[in-house]
Structure formats: structure tokens, C-alpha cells
Predict the structure.
Amino acid sequence: MSDIVNLRGGGSAFVLDLSGETPVIVHWGADLGDAIPAVLSAGPVAHSALDDPHAQHLVPQASSGWRGRPALEGHRSGGRAFSAALVTTAARALAPDGHEVTLADEAAGLSLTVEFHLGQEGMLRIRSTLTNVGTEDYALQSLSTTLPTGLGAAEILDLTGRWCREQHPQRQSVRQGTWLREYRHGRPGHDSSLFTAVGTAGFGNRSGAVWATHFGFSGNRVTVVEKTPTGPALIGNAELLGSGEIVLAAGDSYETPWTYASFSSRGLDGVTDTFHRWLRARAQHPSAVRPVVLNTWEAVYFDHNLDSLVELADRAELLGVERFVLDDGWFRHRRNDKAGLGDWYVDDDVWPQGLTPLIDAVRSRGMQFGLWVEPEMVNEDSDVIRAHPDWVSGAGLGRTPVEWRHQQVLDLVNPDAFAYIFDRLDALLTDNAISYLKWDQNRDLTEMGHEGAPSVHEQTLAAYRLIDALRRAHPEVEIESCSSGGARVDLGILERTDRVWASDCNDALERQTIQRWTKAILPPELVGTHVGPTTSHTTARTHSLSFRAITAMFGHFGIEWDVRTLTESDLLELSEAVALYKKHRALIHSGSAVHADLVDPAYLLGGSVAQDGSEAIFSFVSVATSFDEVPGRAGFPGLNPDTSYEVKVVFPSATSPYGSRGNVSWIPDGFTATGRFLAEVGLPMPVLNPEQGVLIHLVETAGS
């Protein structure tokens, strides 16, 4: 086997040295070309230190002298085999873009295979499989993937939040020590970070070197950035296992979830481009046009009435809606959120003829019909739990976990509970013309247990199996992953679903941040973005319809509002927004996402540029008051420098917030300039009130 593995793609490279006893990561960063010079995998020996020089091993372990967090932690009975000495036993190339290395410790009875790929778009993917080749049980504590950053890495950026305020950025300097975040929600959680990025000082949207990772799993996890005195900062990801949760019997294996990683020499937008290109190239990526959605939740809540809902469907048809989704409240005993969850039968009292009359009404108006479900949760006040109280997950000590929104977790590891849920959903989809499920999961999985043992790992895999089984039985049905908003947004759940609900908050100001950072990893066609009511249900803020529509434009557009109450002017403006989305969704859902680095934090400029650079659509929004009297010029990133573009504000029109404010001369009739001019000189932006915006369309001029 060759001593050097040099994987290249998307302007990046992953270089591994296999010449020693254990694999060493020489480089993860910018592409080095084909020829790799004599490799210096190890550095000098420090004073008062280990006699072997430090090297960045693919699998950091104490037996190699690593003094940080080891990649593998576990033991056999009595604490034996607590420290493995894994050495390379085999390596082979994996077509078309990968490699696999196997390491083993014969004395400890362990074998570890590490698989890694670097695609043409620059996505590095790594996972490991640990096998117990000994004769006794091996209790696994942790198996992590660790990647080094490169020259100049100085700052950490990740995301945090809470319900209705997910995916907000936070920054800090890289310092010596271990910076650790643990997510013990039984799901990623509202405070979960979609990615962890380490970059050069001051890296921005369009500048600086960035090393970023994402952990593709929907259960508990741990992420670390670790800086020791011996080398660069490392980024590590692992599933966070409960006590005794994974015990490998002889011959058993544990496979880590995928770690996804991207290096960018051009700021965060480079990382975004890698993830978007990779996700869009998947075989299961949604290929159909993303329809305009109307969800009934903030229109009717639990007040389900056929006449009212048909009236809502009438107005939806008038607006140009293409998918009508009936939310919570359609099943037995569900007049509020305290009862009925788990009783997945259509409520005969509310729907004496079943859902068929509503489904027929929706479909006759040219819309698809979708339905809300929450299969992983139950109310204790439900027929299913009165009949099967043992189906509630818990610690198994004669008590149930603390309720969350009056809910408990259904133990899907229990095969009978799993079969019940599958049978009910399968029957629901078989008996009704349902093309879409909004699949919710509304609580953290505290004290998640099966038969008295921790079971977050198995519960997560059971949820995956349940969705997979339903997809096989009903391949025509799309599934949205919602988790009280954005508490389960990851590439594990997106292997089997068609979009995510980024947040239960439809406040457009909050959504500007939530959506920007959710889409740092996910392309907009996978992110549900809805126009909510004039006054937000979750924040009580009041926003103009134009600001709400512009915010919702850059995603999978929808409406969550009682549109029966619209004034004539609102009806016209919302219809205009729907038409604009339909006109530009192909561009938004295929183009490169770009974000300008504006000096003034009161303004945001970003959008989508066609892959060939022939067209672009941007939003310029004001999110706060500014110290400056006018916004000044803003440069448009991502355009072809030598292409000439016609630039026009396309929304709002008649309800313009800038019409009487002495604004800039180019807006009424548009402006023509090259991409280089628009990027380097820019255009003066209109004076906007806080929480206002404009939608700007750019198209290549004839003959340019």
C-alpha cells in the first residue's frame, strides 16, 4: 500500500501518512496538488516531554503519547483494556473518492476501521467502526472523530439558542484547553449548533480560512475544540453515550455516525457552498418543485371545523397555495395538548365522515393534502397508554420522567410499541390521499430508557427505522422533520426526510438570524420558511407583510396565518409575494448562497446567484436602527466580474417603504453595471425603517 493518501476535491485536500505504526494526518486544508514532498509528519521533541515527537494521529490515543481526549474510551470487566494501542493492519482505496484504514490491538481484542471520503465539492466525510474481536464484553464509553485545523486558526464560531430562537451565532478565541459542548436532550436540542467552525482571526462570510464540522446524528452528542501545547486546535465529534448504553459482546460492532467537514479558504460562504453542493447531489434530495405551503396551525389551532377549513382552502387557492397541511387536533380526544397524543385514529366526533371531505375539497382546488403527526410522543391521558403504561420510556424505577408539554416519550425500542405506531401511520396513509407528513417531536428525551437501561442511542435508531419503513411503504409521501421547531436539525434526520422546520417562531426579525444560520449548512429548499400573522404568535412583534414575505422568500416558502381575515390590500400583496416565489424558486433552490460582509450590523445583504452567474436575487433588510443616517453603498458578492447586469427592486411595489423618503435614484427605473462594479463599488441602498426590506433581482443583459 502507498505510504501517502492524498484525497483532493473542491479546492481542499486530506493527506494521510501511513508509513508509521499508526496513521498520521499530515494536512486538512487547501489543495496541495498531486505532488506531496517528503512528509514531515512529526515535529521536534520538546523539553521535559515524551521521547517520541508529537504527531497528529488519525486516532489519537494515550498509547501514542496523546495527552488530550482520546478517540476511544472503554474497558472490559474490572477496567481492563482501558487504553488501547491500535496499530495499522490494512488500508485500501474506496472508489470513487475514499480510503479505509483498519487498526487493531490484538492484546485488547479490538479492531477499528476508519472510512473517509473527500468529494469533488470538497465535503470530507469520516466514520469509524469498532469491533470487539475478543471473547469478553467491551463497554464502550466514547468513539470520536477528531480533525486538526491549520495555520492561523484563532477563532471558534458555533451556534446556540432556545425554543423560538434557534441557531444564533457566538464567537470566542481559541485558547489552550478544552472547549466542550454536550447535548443531552435525546435530540440535538434548541441550543444545538449545526456546525462548529474554527478559522483565522476575523474570518467572515467571504474572507478567511475556515475549518468546519457537522455531526450527522439526531441523538445525544458531544463536540469539542481542543488546543494542547503540542499543536493546532482540534475539532472532535462523538455520540454522547449513557452509562452502559453500548456494551459490545464478542463479535459485535459499533459504527459512529458520519462526521461531515469542510475547509474553505474564502470564508463561511465556502463552507456553505460545500454542504449545499453535497446535499443537492444526493439521490434522495427533493427533485420536485417545492410547493407553496399553507399550514393551518396559527389559523385555527385545535378548532377543527370542516366549513372553516374549506373556507381556508378557498382563500389558499386564491393566493396560489399548492399544498394544504392540516396541523394538530384531528385525532381522538385532541381538543387541547393535554390528551390524545398516541391515539392515531381520526376523531369521529370532529370528523364523522373521516378526513375525506376535507381532503377532497383541498385536492379539488388543485392542492396537495398534508397532515401533522407526532409519532414518537404520547400523552399519559390517551387510550394507548391506559392500555400499555409500560410503553412509556423511563428509568424503570417505578416512576415516569417529568412531563414536557404534558408529554412522555413512547418507547420505540419496544417492538410492540414500534409495530403499533407503524401500523397506525401505514393505515392512515393507505386509507387517505395524503402526500405530506409534518412529523413533529415536541420534547426533550430526559431519562430516556428501555427496560431500565439508557436508550437514547437505540431510540434514535428506532425513529430512523420507523421513518425508513414508512418511506418504503409510501415512497410518494414527503416528510418534514419538525421538533418543536428546530430542535432536530441534522444530516442524520435529513437522510430520510425532505425538509426541516427551522423554528416555531414566525417572527420575521427572529427568522432573519434563524434562517441565515440554518442555511449555512442546509440549502434553502430544505428549510421551511413561512409568512406568519401580522403580529407574531410567539413574540407579539408586529411586522409589515413585505418584510415577512421577503424573509420567507429564501427557503421553502409557505403561509401560517388565518388568510380568511386578510384585507384586500394584504390579499393583493401576499398574492404578489407568492407569484414572486414561484417565479424565482428555481434560482433560490439551485443557486449559490452568498452573504455580504457589511460593516454596519443594522443591515443584511444576501441572496442566491445562479451557478452560471447569469442571474441573482438578493434581499437587503434593516434589522435595527443604525448610527448612520443612510446605509451607504453595499457591494453584491458572487457575481461574474465581467458580466453586465440589470438591477431592479422587484418587491415591495405599491406598498414601498422608501417611496416618500427621498431615496436613491436607481430604484425606480433600475440600474445596469458589471458584476465587478457591483461588487467593488456597489450601489447606494435605500433608507429603511427597522424591520423593513427590499427584494433585488439581477439578470444578465443581452450581449454581455
